[in-house]
Please model this.
Amino acid sequence: MSVAPFPARRSATGADPRDRLIVALDVPDGASAMQLAARLGESVTFYKIGLGMLTTGGLAAAMELKDQGKKVFLDMKLFDIPATIEHAVRRLAAFDLDFLTVHGDPSVVQAAAAGAAGTGMKILAVTVLTSSDRGDLDAALIRAGELSELVAERAARAWEAGADGVIASAQEAAALRALPQSAGRLIVTPGIRPAGAAVDDQKRISTPGAAVGAGADHIVVGRPVWQADDPAAAARAIQAELP
Model:
């Protein structure tokens, strides 16, 4: 059964439509990240910093970007016992970050939400990584079932546990947006590739326009932007595809 695209919506993190595009700074270190951000200039308002840069100046880059008025998504995918999660999230919330990822287990989400309480930092729960397929879940001893159904179940439980949003592929975005628990919550989709771009290590991908049309609030794009000869032009081209 086909699913009709959702009508265009303003970004849930502000009125600027550029906020829909989150550029993943998957570069070696903080200095490289800031060089890339300088090249992107005003074309990009929102950046993601992940684990790969954490020990090479990533948090310092996040603070510098915030000082420049940018929004920052810290992609840590935290997973630990609830007390440790709550403590870690409370510490990270002090840096005025915008998004933080944790694994989608309800106990982890609940602890993260407690740690972020009273701050502006939104907790995003990871459902199933976009680099994973059913074979990967089988290898990890994750219970049998259609991957899309598992994503929907994890998303619903994460929202019920207090998540502000979820991370899921665009292939599941429409089904997640149809869940009653999604009202007022964010759907953020990585694994985005403009038409003709290399798939790289992603397995569940989508084009920018299709992802937002399916119900995503934000899309995360890395290599198609920072590997381009003109990263700013690449970012603007992606934004132009969004409904």
